[in-house]
Amino acid sequence: MRNSVSMLPAGSLLWLILLSLFSARLGAAPLLLDERQDRLDLSHYAQVLEDRSGDWQIADVDNRGLQRSFRPVENGDLHLDKRVQRYWFRFSLRNISGEPSKRIFEIRPAYLGDITVYARSSNDSGTASQLIPALPKEEMLRPQNVMALTVPPHSDLHVFVLVENHGDYRSSIGLYQQSEFFWLSSYYDAFNALMLGILCSILMYCVIAFVVYKEPLFINQVAFCILVALSQLTSWGYIQFPLITPSPMSPTMLAFTLAILLTEVIFAQRFPIYSGVAASLWKKLFRLLTALLILGIVLSPLLQGLYVVITLSLVMPIIMLSLIVAAINGFFVSTSRLLFYYLLATAALLASYLTALLAFFLGLIDIYELNLAFAVIAVASAASRIALLIARTRKRWHKQYQEAQRVAVVGEVNRAKSDILSRITHEIRTPISAIVGVTELLEDSSSLTTAQEEYLRSLQRSSHELLQLLEEAGQAARFSDSDMELRSQIMSFPELVGDALAGFRNLAAERDLELIADISPELPSQLLGDPSRIRQLLIHSVNSAFEHSENGFILLKIHPASPRPGHIHIEVSHRGRPFDAEERQALYPAKQELHENNVLSTRFAIISRLVSLMRGQISVRSAGNRDLHTLCMSIQLNVASDRSLSEHSVALLSGKRLLVVDSNKTFCEVINKQCSAWGMTVFSAASEQAAIAILRNQRLLQAPLDFILIDHRQPENGLHLAHRIAEENKDAADHPSILLLAHANIDYDQDVLRQARVQKVLSKPLASSALRSALLGESRFNASNPNRQIDPQTDYSDAATKTLQCLIAEDNPSNALVLKRMLSNLEIEVQHAENGQQALNQFLRTQFDLVILDIEMPVMDGLETARQMRHFENEEGRRRTPIFGLSANALDEQRDNYLNSGIDLHLVKPIRQWELAEAIQRWTGYTHHKS
After folding, report:
1. 488 — phi, psi (to 5°)?
2. Which residues are CB-contacts of 863 (< 8 A; sequence separation ≥ 6)?
3. What are phi and psi of 884, to 5 degrees?
């Protein structure tokens, strides 16, 4: 080096010395201005001086001694350290043209600190004392450090920039043509407006989508869009808050960033991006990430500067990589396309974010360009998440549509099966009806031997068991999850219970079990509900009790569950085998695991589904001391009318006295409660001696008994007690009406009943409606329909002086023969028609007291025949004739159609003689000794 210097000519060495002195005086060589230059980055041309003490002024800086202390900016990176009190920047501009050159000078970011700009032309002497004012902020949409510089012609302009009260920020200095600056500023504002507009559009779409699809993740994206919009508006300075710095390293921006990440984690958890395999592990991970982000948001006001950078540098990669790993695992397990798209979108967004952040730290882009990159990434993230949600929602709707189509097909199949079942039931019941009817007619024959009578009873029992199986099969076949819609119609709950329990008469008789129905009188008499579903519920519940019961009785207890109208509680209790674990599990839909070979579990699942359908609850209860096991259910119905019995009905029963003779204390309590609600006085006796004592005491008190209800299974025999009561009252003016309670398979000789003065035999189980009907019947009142007015022209009060005229329409010869024989035994005159058209023709010509129509008939069926008859009565003003519909179809939907066509009572084949006689008495008042 020394040799090379010595070899230089003396003139050259002198020139280098002068050039060094000139450079030391003026600093770096001036930047030559060119009109073709639109923008220049002065960071590569500027020099910097650190004023750590903060004492230097412009006069101190612009002197020969301190100018030597300026150093070039390293790689154009103007990174400020807040530990330095002041920074001085220096650069020079040279204008070689003959006109003044105007430029816009800007230092970024706008929140850098307090900026003061001094300038001195080379034509001026002394220090740079000219203060360059900033452009008015009123002319800008957002804060900017912008000054207008004018370089005189053929001169240099030396500019000094003072930065104080700054933080740890990266800054940049730019020089622009005026047109270029305003275009670039407008570009930033337009781009931000575009991004915010897109975010607002996505936000509005998410709100509408949430209302339409009911998907909570759309609200999550609403929060994401709001957070991104607020962070962008704050970072650019469009909105300003007191004590909030829009720096990316400020606590506010850290809180915004962590909140945005929290929405991403919530989205991934609710989407979800993890598979069902080891789902609990992924849930714990996402809960940990959520807790970490919430903790970061809470602690963000305590962090500043470098700590913010460290926090973001740690949290952001951890969160995003965790989401990507979870998505990869979920994709390889489920191979879902949605997870694959989520994985691609998340990886692309993470790569874009890291690339932009790296470019900023390397000085390739400034803070404004970094903000633009973040806005694009955020909008892309929101758009990708919305696209995923739309795809998943459409996929779900497609599945729902396919499921709806499947359900519709299954519904059609079920309806077809119901129709087939209806026809099969009718076809099977029709011959069984003839069999049962013929056996009942044969029982009246006096030429049968004891063995033949046993054969007949065995045949009857088998027939009734077959009918019970048909009924249960029909109820089970009609239960379908795809067709579980409730109808709403007015019904009488006590009568509905009575109809449901009537099918268990033979089963109770065979098992020698007492089936007791305790219906609270506080229940509304008229309720709105689906009688078909309620009957299903009662039948399945009582059937399960019969399956578990071993001895004693089965108690069906129905009472209001709460003061809320229509809230009904149903209990079915039995003694015997308790409910096992599998049956208890079947009661709760969330735990149902039914086995095909377990009928009881299936029945309990049906019971649970029916109770749930009627907005109720279900449970089981066991009392170990009494060995009593109870199935408890509550259902919610609507109240149509809160009327109980009519005033006329109450007047007939009010004040009447009833004696119940039964050793079953529970049955006596139930009868006492029911009859007391009707205004009756009830006495109970557990033995024959107690019953006779009560009878005599009431006679001495001048308050004789009106009714006596005797159980046929009394230890001394119920008929024996009836004989004693008849002897006790043979000289009395008023004889109490004796009602005998017996199982359906018990057959009593009419002469024996007549000698014991038994007016009526009631079948077990005894429903409240049947008991009321019998008591009112004995009081000369129609019990089944108290509002019906019997035509005054027809008086049935004296059966011996009046013969009933009945028209029957039956196309089956066997059933027609049985029906005619039964009516003949009741001394009722019968006219027979083979189809509905013949029956209608006879009805138009003759006034009948009763009409019995078979539903399934050729030419004109029973429904149309009933409609035509009712239409004729209305036109001619003829009194209403009771019409009975006779059908082998026991399904409730068809029964409702029958009653709506004008039929008064629906009788199910096979019809028994005592049922037919009771129905005739109930609707016409006609009474015969064979009843």
Report:
1. -135, 115
2. 855, 885, 897, 898, 901, 903
3. -100, 135
Q: Would the pTM of this model clear 0.85, i.e. be above it?
A: no
Q: What is the DSSP string of 596-624?
A: TT-HHHHHHHHHHHHHHHTT-EEEEEEET
Selection from 262, 258, 265 nearest residue 285 by Cα: 265
Largest CA distance in the chain: 169
pLDDT score of 257 more than 60: yes
Phi, psi for residue 449 in degrees, rounded to 5: -85, 170
Look at residues 888, 891, 889 and name the one whose alpha carbon lies nearest to residue 478.
891
CA distances to 20, 51, 58, 620 from 126, rounded to whole Å, are 21, 22, 11, 104
Asked whether the bond before 524 is cis by omega within 30 degrees of 0, the reply is no
- The full DSSP string for 686-701 is SSHHHHHHHHHHHHHT
8 A C-beta contact, residue 511 and residue 546:
yes
Q: Is the pLDDT of residue 912 over 90?
A: no
Structure tokens at 849: 């007291």
Given a contact cutoff of 8 angstroms between Cβ atoms, the answer to whether 791 and 772 are in contact is no
Evaluate whether 434 touches 820 at the Cβ level (below 8 Å). no
- Two structure tokens written together for 750: 């009419």
Short-list 714, 694, 712, CA closest to 704: 694
Instruction: Report the pLDDT value the prediction gives residue 204, as an integer from 0 to 100.
Output: 94
Summary mean pLDDT of the chain: 79
Report phi then psi at 586, rounded to 5: -70, -15
Give the confidence band of 801 by pLDDT, cuts at 50, 70, 90.
very low
Token pair, residue 433, equals: 């009806």
Distance CA 508, CA 523 (A): 26
Q: Quick: pLDDT tens for 184-206.
A: 888 988 999 999 999 999 999 99
d(CA 301, CA 245): 12
Token readout for 232 is: 């962008």
With H, G, I as helix, E, B as strand and everything else as coil, classify residue 831.
Answer: strand
Please state, in angstroms and as integers, the Cα–Cα distance from residue 867 to each residue in 642, 810, 853, 893, following that order: 31, 17, 12, 18
CB 780 within 8 A of CB 824: no
| CA proximity to 306, closest of 168, 109, 113, 166 | 168
The span from the CA of 815 to the CA of 50, in Å, is: 119
The strand pairing partners of 833, in sequence order, are 809
Q: Which residue has the tokens 């800086």?
A: 61
List alpha helices for 248-366, DSSP H: 251-270, 279-299, 306-334, 337-361
**Block residue for tokens 């001086």:** 49
Q: What count of other Cβ atoms lies within 10 Å of the Cβ of residue 339?
A: 24
User: Mean pLDDT over residues 489-497, rounded?
Assistant: 77
**Residues 777, 760 contacting (CB under 8 angstroms):** yes
Q: Which of 524, 418, 419 is CA-nearest to residue 476?
A: 418
Query: Residue 422: its pLDDT value, please?
Result: 64
The pLDDT tens digits of the residues spanning 554-568 come to 888 988 888 888 888
Q: pLDDT tier at 485 (50, 70, 90 boundaries)?
A: low
Q: Which residues on neighbouring strands pair with residue 760, listed in sequence order?
A: 739
Q: What is the DSSP letter of 425?
A: H
Residues 244-252, mean pLDDT to the nearest whole number: 73
Residue 13 pLDDT more than 60?
no
Place of tokens 């579990």: 601
Which has more pLDDT, 651 or 131? 131
Q: Name the residue with higher pLDDT: 839 or 927.
A: 839
pLDDT tens-place string over residues 394-426: 888 888 788 778 777 776 776 777 667 766 766
Instruction: Give rounded-to-5 percent helix, strand, coil for the chain.
Output: 50, 20, 30
Alpha-carbon distance of 406 to 413, in angstroms, equals 10
Q: How many whole angstroms separate alpha carbon 539 and alpha carbon 531?
A: 12
